[in-house]
Amino acid sequence: MKKSLLKSALLVSMSALTIFAAGCSSKTEGAAAGKSADDKITIAWLPNESGADLEAARTEIGKEIEAATGKKVEHKTTTDYIVAIEAIANGNADVAFLGAQGYIEAHKKNEKVLPLAVPSGESGTLDDAVYYSWLAVNKGDASKYKDGNKFSLDHIAGKKFSFVSNSSTSGFKVPSTGIVDYFSKKGDYKDLKAEDLQEGGKDKFFSEVLYGGSHQGSAVNLLTGKADIAAFCDTCVNNYVELANGDENRPGAIYKVKKDAAEPFNTLPGKEFELISVTPVLNAPFVVNTKEINEEDQKKILELLTSDKIAGNEKVFVPADSKFSGLFSKKSGKERLLKVEDKFFDPIRELSK
Length: 353
Fold this sequence. Notes:
- By secondary structure, the chain is an alpha/beta fold.
- The chain contains 10 helices and 17 strands.
- Strand 1, helix 2 (55-69) and strand 2 form a beta-alpha-beta unit.
- The chain starts with a helix and ends with a helix.
- 47% of the residues are buried.
């Protein structure tokens, strides 16, 4: 899929979520090109990548950046999307790994925050640099969301729904846009807006709305019965679940929690859920606050991230048969990090228009 086609497919898929048949003070200001005096680089991580199971993966990235720049790396883990976004925007972090929507929010707060690189698709290019936003229900409940043999969004109104965070791309922005696009074409919901989905109640679209705080947390809300439907993405739960039936990233696919899954899935081994909707989403970027890091270090970090060394590092791009819990998976062997520009994320921006 060419990049233009990817953009079109992403925007088209938003209309019905691809339903298929079966805050702190900033650091001391530096020069416009970035500071050069600091001997430390701080990396902020979203809640999805802040768990203990990914500590070794974060450490590996930090170790490589230390070697490339000669500066000590400090990791800033978070339990809230806003903390990570504010950290990179305010200069309390120098680098961050954010979702597309998180990057857009950070860039809007501070235009000096710019993307560095994103993981490629299986082709090794940006043409298929996507992951997937899921709407899932517990196994056995999928028939409630079908008209005949086809899944339908019509049946989600009035249910208990779990999002990730309203700053999450695949855990809020994409699914909420798709839901609004679909239902606003119907008379009863012609004035529906994304804000109407943020809270539940008797007079609301959903009877109850929960937020998992992370993709893992949203999935747990589903599996523990707190939610009827949950939005979360494939890559953020990949280390905890395995395909039990059907085709990967297709509605109707059933996934099962691994017997040795780490927290927060450790009490849910064998629990299964089924996908009722799957939507492609632009891959998440490493971003940099260009006011906080000088141009020389920016170049070093970019060269490192997009190098063969990182692409071949099995603690960064984890082979399919590895037991290591990493940030990225390697399926084709061509996956790597690629330089990306701000305009790459325009399709996500357009969802707000």
